[in-house]
Amino acid sequence: MPINVLFFASLRERLGKAQASIDTDVPLTAHEVWQRSSGGAALPVNVLVSVNQAYANLETLVQAGDEVAFFPPVTGG
């Protein structure tokens, strides 16, 4: 099973895609998932990460079959 990667808001616009899929036989950190799925694009400052719809950090290990989402910080008013 692949890792399903989702990009939201300005990240989706910046990368030109809403999602990606990564095949792997070994666990990856969320940061490694970003590197592979973004084509090596620099990771913007303060990007939020979720793994399986729970907040995570860039060092969180991700397994095949997991869903990883990257989104910019949310502001409210």
TrEMBL record:
One GO BP annotation of this record: Mo-molybdopterin cofactor biosynthetic process
Alphabetized InterPro entries for the sequence: Beta-grasp_dom_sf (IPR012675), MOCS2A (IPR044672), Mopterin_synth/thiamin_S_b (IPR016155), ThiS/MoaD-like (IPR003749)
One of the record's GO cellular component terms: molybdopterin adenylyltransferase complex
GO molecular function: nucleotide binding
Gene3D superfamilies to which the protein is assigned, alphabetical: 3.10.20.30
CDD domains per the UniProt record, alphabetical: Ubl_MoaD (cd00754)
Keywords, ordered alphabetically: Nucleotide-binding
Family annotation (Pfam families): ThiS
The family this protein is said to belong to: Belongs to the MoaD family.
Name of this chain's protein: Molybdopterin synthase sulfur carrier subunit
Record organism: Thiothrix unzii
